[in-house]
Specification:
- The structure is a single chain.
- By secondary structure, the protein is α/β, with parallel strands linked by helices.
- The protein folds into 2 domains: about 180 residues, FAD/NAD(P)-binding domain (3-Layer(bba) Sandwich); about 120 residues, FAD/NAD(P)-binding domain, CATH 3.50.50.
- It is built from 8 helices and 16 strands.
- A hairpin with a 4-residue loop joins β5 and β6.
- α1 packs parallel to α2.
- Flavin-adenine dinucleotide (FAD) binds next to α1, β2, α4 and α8.
Length: about 325
Amino acid sequence: MEDSYDCIIVGGGPAGLTAATYLARYRRRVLLIDAGSSRAAMIPRSHNHAGYPDGVEGLRLLRDMAVQAAQFGVELRNGCVAKIARGDEAGADGGFIVTLAEGETLQAHAVLIATGVVNRRPPIEDDVHDAALAAGTLRYCPICDGYEAGGWDGESGGGERRIAVLGADGHGVAEALFLKTYADHVTLLTLIACDLDEHDRADLKRAGVTWETRPASAFAFADTAVTVTLDDGEEQRFDTLYPALGSNANSELVEQLGLDLDEERCIMTDRHQRLGMKGLYAAGDIVAALDQISVAMGHAAIAATTIHNDLRKAEGKTPDR
Ligand SMILES: Cc1cc2nc3c(=O)[nH]c(=O)nc-3n(C[C@H](O)[C@H](O)[C@H](O)COP(=O)(O)OP(=O)(O)OC[C@H]3O[C@@H](n4cnc5c(N)ncnc54)[C@H](O)[C@@H]3O)c2cc1C
């Protein structure tokens, strides 16, 4: 495997880019392949990412991280990885064969999967969706921006805002209850006719969250508000809508390798980010954990250091003890 990369990283979000910089600084030959749909690119401005008192735009963070990785010699490529196969099963003498969507194959001693997840979206046109996201009338991550959605960043303090959560299952109920940290008026909406179970209703009632059993059929976004039309025609106005419809994990590559996923199709790793197959590692949202930039970066630091040390061991560069 003379032409082999030490590590191919699949995914160029905060996890992949952090690992790339670490590995390059461990003087490893690294290729990062990214399909260009990082969730971080959707962040208008993050205020909970440490080190940026005025907040940071997701795109700027990604751009700066890519510049940093390239500066230490990481090869960055746009593209989509279609398959990862173990080298010994594909005629090579170890490591992995990585196949791109266009058919090109590449070799690596180690592979880091940092492919992230994709939020399920409500039925809203793409341009309306993106404008509402930029305006803060549509949000996806209460942990990230519930503070701003509740108005706590303004001079008069918060609490008065009206927040709607869309998704009347356990996930939506949990998100609505969480948002009571920030707002007095929280309403749980549903996209399909369904009723909550007795325990959910009791929890919501106790917390002062209202809920609608009439499905929401349309969403109209203005500069600072969203009007939701229910299926009987009634309109309700909110300051912010949080879809809580779950997400789809980009875990096909791991599934192809026959590895286990959790019930949300996320990857389970050990505490060194290993996947139970020699040379394979994972980091970021794709791993079953809290979906946050700081967690993705933490996973990546651990994964990159494990990869370097595992390679050192394979190269006979560690003591035999
Ligand atoms: C609207 C919004 C606001 C958010 N705000 C915050 C915030 O303020 N603070 C915070 O900490 N977190 C926030 N988050 C969460 C944060 O964006 C994620 O936790 C973070 O982006 C995860 O990084 P990642 O590298 O694991 O995945 P991602 O950033 O999603 O990157 C994964 C990358 O892998 C690529 N990929 C997938 N499959 C393949 C393949 N087969 N081949 C090649 N490439 C592939 C994708 O195209 C993508 O570019 C927010 C999320 C959203 C949606």
